[in-house]
Amino acid sequence: MGRGRVQLKRIENKINRQVTFSKRRTGLLKKAHEISVLCDADVALIVFSTRGKISEYSTDSSMESILERYERCSYQEQQLVPNGSEHQESWSLDHPKLMARVEILQRNLRNYTGQELDSLNLKELQYLEQQIDTALKRIRSRKSQLLHESLNELRKKVKENEKSLTEQAQWEQLSLGQNSSSFMPPVAQPPLQPPLPSHPPPLTIGDSFQIIGFLNGDENAEVQTQPSTMPPWMLRHVNDTI
């Protein structure tokens, strides 16, 4: 059996009215978050209770930027309306609203910095905590992303430096090898010696020889001889025989 349709009229019972407000406010904030995520839309929601307490929701872009866009759109639409007394009266009526909006935004900023929290109830504090946690998660995610990109960039630079040093060392080693081989002095070869004769020239008894060339290693050198006188003992022997 389905739930009956609720008649839209003011709830007279104060307690029931407060309970209904809390439930509907939670559902409204949830719906605002869902439409912002599903449809990628910029959503800003502001709800005031009968006690004057504020409940708000905004997407990734801050509440201030969404309100500024709204004011610019409203101002552009008002420029199309011809100037007149009615137009000036609307501006005079909008001024208090704008001042109240500025006051609300300033109070929200103070709440985000941890100030003036005594006027907030438990659910408002939980919602404020949720917004701050969401902001912290985005900040940490962005920080981690930047750190990861920085580390990758450093690793890339280190690899490039190592590659450059390796190529430079190889080039220097190759250049050093080429220079040492080109400037190496030739090995001195020992001079060739002519072969000595196997048999020296024969000597004759009684003659003294001056062998020139044989001692110098010249095999074709001319052998010069010089006769000498007989020794005295040989002369006596010759005379006795005569």
From TrEMBL:
Occurrences of domain K-box (ranges): 88-177
Annotated ranges, domain MADS-box: 1-61
Chain segments carrying region Disordered: 179-203
InterPro entries: MADS-box/MEF2_TF, MEF2-like_N, TF_Kbox, TF_MADSbox, TF_MADSbox_sf
Compartments where located: Nucleus
Keywords: DNA-binding, Nucleus, Transcription, Transcription regulation
Entry's Gene Ontology molecular function annotations: DNA-binding transcription factor activity; protein dimerization activity; RNA polymerase II transcription regulatory region sequence-specific DNA binding
Record carries keyword Protease: no
Gene Ontology cellular component list: nucleus
Gene Ontology terms describing biological process: positive regulation of transcription by RNA polymerase II
Coiled-coil ranges per UniProt: none
Pfam families registered for this protein in UniProt: K-box (PF01486), SRF-TF (PF00319)
SMART domains: MADS (SM00432)
UniProt name for this protein: Uncharacterized protein
Lineage of producing organism: Eukaryota, Viridiplantae, Streptophyta, Embryophyta, Tracheophyta
